[in-house]
Write a structure and sequence with these properties.
Layout: E1 2-4, E2 10-11, E3 28-35, E4 38-43, E5 52-59, E6 66-69, E7 79-81, E8 86-88
Antiparallel strand pairs: 1-2, 1-8, 3-4, 3-5, 6-7
Length: 90
């Protein structure tokens, strides 16, 4: 099991089917709401029942990790973004 140091995600580098997994950190999703006449951007767990949900706001995660490779076949190069790296689970 690997742990992404950028987002905290846990994953196996090789799936049960034997296919290699290339981790990419998900974006941060917040929510734009209207609350008591004001428009606010809040974390998803901060949305109140009385809020009017307007839209999701997607923010690129700072220093995200994306293990997908650039190019294809013989032209494939290193991962797109190393972020803060990954480590093996203790």
């Amino acid at each position: 099991m690997r742990i992404c140091r950028s987002c905290g995600g846990r994953y196996e580098p090789i799936g049960r089917d034997g296919v290699r997994y290339f981790h990419a950190c998900p974006p941060i999703v917040r929510v734009r709401v209207q609350r008591d006449g004001a428009e606010l951007v809040v974390d998803r767990d901060q949305v109140r029942v009385t809020d009017t949900r307007l839209e999701d706001v997607v923010i690129d995660r700072p220093n995200h990790r994306n293990e997908n490779v650039r190019g294809w076949g013989a032209t494939a190069r290193s991962s797109i973004s190393d972020g803060d790296g990954a480590s093996d689970e203790p």
